[in-house]
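Per your request, structure below.
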């Protein structure tokens, strides 16, 4: 059974993130994420990993009026004549968020649900784009047809993302998610070079290799996988029902059996390795965030390590 297995014997923690909660709670989460991500990335405002950069267009002979700070001293020394570097105008890349809102994302047994981490990531990326005047767009999927928030600049774009996060949190979706369809949809939607973050637990059919390859050929794609500890190993709590939230399928198991717990952990590890290997083979950067960890710090460390946007 592929998909997140809800443990019917364990209580899922109350939803603290965006969704059907008071506006004050959403604003508090928004403020917390913004302060933490900006604090952890202090000094990285000019990093091209956040979606903006300049490109060297050419080196040409110096002309009166040129900025002397742009003199290329290496070329000048080789030719014996002053040359300057000419850059294309600084340009913002649109950032797209592909946000999984399918039923499996509502699972969580640690400090929060997978959906809460995913929505927090969306807020963090939105703030980074907003701070730099970049355009941010959102595609939420998992409840039928994908919903699109077209890219907009600055605070307006972020507010649109926040509104969609609230709507996504109210979804009562059922059924498996086809990431292949979403990647194909995103490839048609993003016509210009873009930075694409796919935030998902990557559960469901593995029908997306070809479509992700096509998407990553044109865009800089980052896969952010959200996990919960209970998806990696079963607790020893006796008999319980496992439920696949994507399909509704149920299975009764006796977790007191050590052999069963070991087989579950082995299968989960193999699935993780398969996913990581597939993404690596496609040249897609892969970040894993846990519902039990400090996901903000992990995200900031990851972004700091991405020196440039692939062009």
């Amino acid at each position: 059974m592929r998909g997140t297995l809800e443990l019917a014997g364990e209580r899922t923690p109350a939803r603290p993130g965006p969704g059907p909660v008071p506006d004050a709670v959403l604003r508090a989460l928004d403020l917390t994420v913004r302060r933490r991500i900006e604090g952890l990335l202090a000094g990285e405002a000019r990093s091209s990993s956040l979606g903006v950069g300049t490109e060297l267009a050419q080196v040409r002979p110096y002309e009166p009026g040129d900025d002397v700070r742009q003199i290329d001293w290496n070329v000048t020394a080789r030719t014996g004549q002053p040359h300057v570097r000419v850059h294309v105008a600084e340009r913002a890349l649109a950032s797209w968020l592909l946000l999984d809102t399918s039923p499996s994302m509502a699972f969580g047994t640690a400090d929060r649900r997978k959906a809460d981490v995913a929505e927090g990531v969306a807020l963090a990326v939105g703030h980074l784009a907003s701070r730099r005047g970049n355009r941010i767009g959102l595609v939420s999927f998992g409840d039928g047809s994908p919903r699109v928030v077209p890219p907009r600049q600055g605070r307006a774009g972020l507010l649109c993302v926040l509104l969609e996060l609230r709507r996504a949190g109210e979804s009562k979706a059922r059924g498996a998610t086809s990431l292949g369809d979403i990647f194909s949809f995103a490839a048609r939607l993003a016509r210009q070079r873009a930075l694409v973050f796919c935030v998902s637990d990557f559960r469901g059919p593995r029908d997306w290799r070809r479509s992700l390859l096509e998407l990553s050929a044109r865009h800089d794609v980052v896969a952010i996988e959200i996990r919960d500890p209970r998806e990696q190993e079963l607790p020893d709590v006796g008999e319980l029902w496992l439920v696949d939230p994507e399909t509704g399928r149920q299975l009764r198991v006796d977790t007191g059996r050590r052999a069963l717990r070991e087989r579950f952990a082995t299968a989960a590890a193999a699935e993780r390795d398969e996913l990581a290997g597939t993404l690596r083979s496609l040249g897609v950067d892969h970040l894993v965030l846990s519902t039990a960890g400090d996901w903000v710090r992990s995200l900031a460390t990851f972004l700091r390590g991405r020196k440039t946007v692939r062009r």
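The helical segments are 23-40, 73-79, 114-131, 154-169, 179-189, 209-218, 258-281, 295-305.

Regards,
D.
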